[in-house]
Amino acid sequence: MEKERALYTKAEIDENVRVPAMVEQDLKRIISDRLEQCGMYFRVFSRTKSSASMERKFATKQYDHNRKLQDLIGVRINLYYDDDVSLCQYVMEQTFQVLEWSTSERNEDEFKPTKLNGVFMLPSYLKNQISPATWDMCIDETFEIQIKTIFFEGWHEIEHDMRYKGEELWDQYPGFSRYFNSILATLELCDKSIVTLFEDLGHDLYKSGQWTDMIRSHFRIKIADTPMYPELEEILTEDQTLTVDSLAKRIYKTPKKALLEQLLRRVRRIPINVNTIVALLNDSDFHDSRLTELFREKDVYNDGRDEILAASRHVQMKALSRHSVFKMRTWVDGSRIRDEEPVTDKVIFRRTSDAVYKWIVSKYGELFTDMPAIRCSWQEEVIGYRVQIAISDETLTMKMEVNHIDPEVGGRIWYSRASLAPDKDGHMILDVDNGYAEPISEKHVPQEMPGMFFSYPGYYKAIVDTIGVFNGIECGNRRRILKEEQVPELIRAIRDPDRGFPVVLIVSREDEEGMMDEDWLGQFRVSDFTRTVWRYTHVFTSYETVGRAVLDAFGLNTPGAASKLYIFWPDGSVDSYGPEDVANCSFGRHLEARGDARTYDIVHGGQAFYHKIVTDLRNYIVTG
């Protein structure tokens, strides 16, 4: 029996899969730091899989809850030396929890690009940064590392785009295909020849007593220009003439991996130069008393250490400006609690404060290891991170604030604040403010799209989804068709001065069969739209007759009122959009950002209208 296949639309992926940029950047930083610690020559590239790419992959491959997508985040390491591939594999195994390795097979009759792919578990502190809904979508808690040499990287890019995607064409031209493979064979020979060249050179340098250049050629790592200690050079030269198994010979015979192992074991990164390399090998293997005494006198592991960061410098202190990415005030009504009767204020308070506390533990628990697992008042602070939560079961009140530094953007601090308390009518009111603060810059330009960083915290999602909120009217995560008897309730909700949710009402005429005619919306899919915004916006659709009853109450029932989308904002203003607005809409949909470069996909019609309305709603929530 065929297993149920996982298929997700791009809209579903966009709604559920949220990977902060810091996750990808932190992985890249960790990998770069480890390889730099070993002095290896490398380049690192990374990417987070786009929703469009995931949609295609789910459509073309058989994924289910047993076989999940494993490369949500991908890292590519390009190396300069062929023999560094296995060494890089070893370094990654010492850095992350590896699940499996796979490599392209080589045989004597065929040339193909050789690459090594590894699948690793995401570090839990990074996994906790990703939206929890991600793991419900047949996506594994893993990331992929691909290791190749620089030569093969360039060839592989060309091969993938020019041959792999048009394989049938190349079958018709075997001569050209063979010619193409011969280029790969040449590159493979270049990779091997470079290593052989330096090994042979290192042997000649060893025989001629040029110790510094021998070490450089043999180990082929980034070695500083620090001169070899004269005393060390004298010991190596003298020893060469006196013993068969000389120190210089033992250095030359030491495998590169042995040196990398010693570099990785150092708790604090040391300068890499000819002196520290010999010192490391002496500490681990040679144990020569002359070298031990020399390196102790020279304080070899600190000699040449970069002191720039320790230099005194004046930094002008600047005030931090706050920028919200989500703000909401709402009544937690317990309407989604199904397993506890009766649903009292105490039950709602306990469930809500517990959701907030669990979120704090999942996000900061690995940093603050002594944080109790059970809900309680608690606070702790380390440099750059702070957690404070006060809970009173007697007064049914809770206050929480957490903040942490942004590992990617210097000077930026992210924060989340929440409070829970009964109002004068006894309703449990939740206030949420999620955002960041950064120094005010003279070059600061106000964001044209305040909701660009829009993000509600995980605890808010958990509260809305599993406990339930009431914001002028009951929340709904599915398409809702307004019925005549519901009109008075909706009118009251729109007029409610405490309402924080915008209300979207989509009014449509009936078609010839008496069904709601929504062709004017084009690619604007109401169900997808509702699932995207329901945690901060009410969405209703209605037939013309029922819709006009609502519009009457607000003086909007004009002759052209049918087949329109209305947004009733909490501040009392109303926006309306008709078929011509949908048809003529264009939108620069933000796809990705790398540094200062942004990529946009220009869409038109109903699809563009969808993105425009979602963006307008998020901008209001952020600034309202």
Describe the structure.
- With 624 residues, the protein is of the alpha+beta class.
- Helix content is 39%, strand content 21%.
- It is built from 21 helices and 18 strands.
- The protein has helices spanning 10-16, 21-37, 51-60, 84-93, 124-127, 150-162, 167-171, 174-207, 211-219, 230-242, 247-253, 256-265, 274-286, 289-298, 345-364, 458-466, 487-495, 526-533, 544-552, 579-583, 605-623, and strands at residues 42-48, 73-79, 98-103, 116-121, 142-149, 320-332, 378-382, 385-392, 397-405, 413-422, 428-439, 469-470, 503-508, 538-543, 564-568, 574-577, 586-594, 597-604.
- The strands form 4 sheets. The chain has a 7-stranded antiparallel beta sheet. Strands 1-2-5-4-3 form a 5-stranded mixed beta sheet. A 4-stranded mixed beta sheet has the order 14-13-15-16.
- Helix 8 runs antiparallel to helix 9 (211-219) and helix 12 crosses helix 13 (274-286).
Topology:
Elements: H1 10-16, H2 21-37, E1 42-48, H3 51-60, E2 73-79, H4 84-93, E3 98-103, E4 116-121, H5 124-127, E5 142-149, H6 150-162, H7 167-171, H8 174-207, H9 211-219, H10 230-242, H11 247-253, H12 256-265, H13 274-286, H14 289-298, E6 320-332, H15 345-364, E7 378-382, E8 385-392, E9 397-405, E10 413-422, E11 428-439, H16 458-466, E12 469-470, H17 487-495, E13 503-508, H18 526-533, E14 538-543, H19 544-552, E15 564-568, E16 574-577, H20 579-583, E17 586-594, E18 597-604, H21 605-623
Parallel strand pairs: 2-5, 13-14
Antiparallel strand pairs: 1-2, 3-4, 4-5, 6-11, 6-12, 7-8, 8-9, 9-10, 10-11, 13-15, 15-16, 17-18
Helix pairs in contact: 1-3, 8-9, 12-13, 15-16, 17-19
